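Dear colleagues,

For the upcoming journal club I promised to circulate an example of a predicted protein-ligand complex. I picked one with nicotinamide-adenine-dinucleotide because it came up in last month's discussion. The inputs are reproduced below in full, followed by the predicted structure.
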Amino acid sequence: LLDTIQGLNDRSEIHGILVQLPLPDGLDSHEAINAIDPMKDVDGCTTTNLGELVSGNERLVPCTPRGTIAMIESTGTTFEGKTAVVIGRSILVGKPVALLMLNRHAVVTLCHSRTPDLGAEGREADILVVAAGRRGLVTGDMIKPGAVVIDVGINVVDGKLKGDVDFESAKEVAGHITPVPGGVGPMTRAMLLENTLIAAKLQADSASES
Ligand code: NAD
């Protein structure tokens, strides 16, 4: 796997590389991801690009979090001073989405499996992003009226895709809400294409400098 990634790093006609997770047992995902040239890291998951994000420099940002921000912005919602709650603290989704909202001056709370009262946190949220991978974790009574609710979760129930938010009860309370399927998933793919373009430009700029 590392040889393959190195080979792709070396080929100038390849602009983007993504390691599809989870990897089979015995392969180290941290090592594999960090073998990617940071300028070709189109899912923004290398330590270098995540470090840039922590520093407030959004160069190549993970696709799902980027799509989440784009969808919130598309509603006309601004972040500054808003209460934003993220449920889920993974490196791929929860943490980067929290950082992106923090960079936009939201007041961010990051919840996870040890959060004592998710409902109390959710009811405070002007913006609620749910990325736990738990079907029906968030119900309408956990949502502030008028909130923007982004459901990142994907759960397969009887062969059908379902989110982490109970759409039927949540849609009665939320101001905006994304469906599953047809919400975050397509945006993630669109952001992957956009990141590939950004990566190609970074590589072109770097080649012209050297
Ligand atoms: P993960 O398993 O790495 O992380 C899940 C997080 O949720 C953890 O931080 C955990 O603490 C938290 N959590 C779990 N149970 C909880 C509970 N009961 N209460 C509060 N927090 C809880 O998952 P991930 O990679 O972040 O993905 C999350 C979900 O989003 C999954 O369903 C995944 O399939 C989906 N996903 C969708 C897309 C997309 O493009 N639509 C992309 C990435 C991930």
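Two points we might discuss: The pocket of nicotinamide-adenine-dinucleotide is lined by residues 64, 87-90, 92-94, 111-113, 115, 118, 131-134, 137, 152-155, 184-185, 188 (CB under 6 Å). The helical segments are 2-10, 29-34, 47-54, 63-74, 94-103, 118-122, 167-170, 184-209.

See you all on Thursday,
B. R.
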